[in-house]
Amino acid sequence: xxxxxxxxxxxxxxxxxxxxxxxxxxxxxxxxxxxxxxxxxxxxxxxxxxxxxxxxxxxxxxxxxxxxxxxxxxxxxxxxxxxxxxxxxxxxxxxxxxxxxxxxxxxxxxxxxxxxxxxxxxxxxxxxxxxxxxxxxxxxxxxxxxxxxxxxxxxxxxxxxxxxxxxxxxxxxxxxxxxxxxxxxxxxxxxxxxxxxxxxxxxxxxxxxxxxxxxxxxxxxxx
Length: 223
Hints:
Strand order of the largest sheet: 1-4-5-6
Number of strands: 8
Radius of gyration: 24 Å
Mean pLDDT: 86
Distance between the termini: 65 Å
Order of helices and strands: HHEHEEHEEEEHHEHHH
Shape: globular
Oligomer: single chain
Number of helices: 9
């Protein structure tokens, strides 16, 4: 006889303990789920390539303005979004996989796929929250004339594809360049990157310069 059957059947010996064990297991799962979240979404899905092309055609084409007077502090961020979480922390949870946070909403575990350079990042300190249309780029495209309230909204907007978690190195490479000057090394993202960029500029009535518009048209061609 198999040694696995040489003793009493545990299930028959203590049948009343199983519900209690089940309760403990379910409680443990609930506790884990309360602090750990999988990536349920990246930035909101932008308009289709066709819609983006129409939006691009409607944007005002103008030479890029000056950076005079620009300061990141003129675009207040990161603001509180919910509970203890600010905008950065919300995006880290949204864009990450297996993200657990502490009582201050700081990630304690998780990993993030940086679509710009097709790289996994496992330390949240190595993750940047990129503004698809950089704050300085927005300043030169019309935001210099906005109120502080509108600039704050722009810098923390979660309702359009303006914020995304990426590797700090790719974000540093991008800096405040427009698509005529920089595109993601991962060419598989070119289509959606162009659609996101156009969506942001269209949503806020920002201008595009000639080279930028031509680059966006080219990127839309990759769709």
